[in-house]
Request: fold
Amino acid sequence: LAFLSALVAARHEGDAFKAVELLDKALEIHMTALRRQPYDVNYFAKLDPDFLVDLSREYLGHVGAEPEVREAGSVEAAALSKALKLLAIVRKHVPGLLEGQLLLARAKFLGHD
Reply:
């Protein structure tokens, strides 16, 4: 529900700050449920890498299309940082997910890495 609220805030209300806050909440809810899961087959089902890639794509939607210097406390810098961390988790657990790899490369390009 938090993820869908973030989509509504971003697309219909145009409020990037609220959208990123709701994305943070969606990520926190997802990762909290994941932490309680033992590391087995069900862990990977609960990990839901496609959802994490979707979250990352939404974070990157608030960053912009060109690499530039971002202010440390800005919404863009926070969204980029969270997208990078999230995509690193996806790459670690599901290295064969091509879409995750491509988004990670794009995020690193945008962040001058």
Summary: Helices lie at 2-13, 16-35, 41-47, 49-61, 75-93, 98-110. Residues 16-35 form the longest helix (20 residues). The radius of gyration is 14 Å. The CA atoms of residues 87 and 104 lie 6 Å apart.
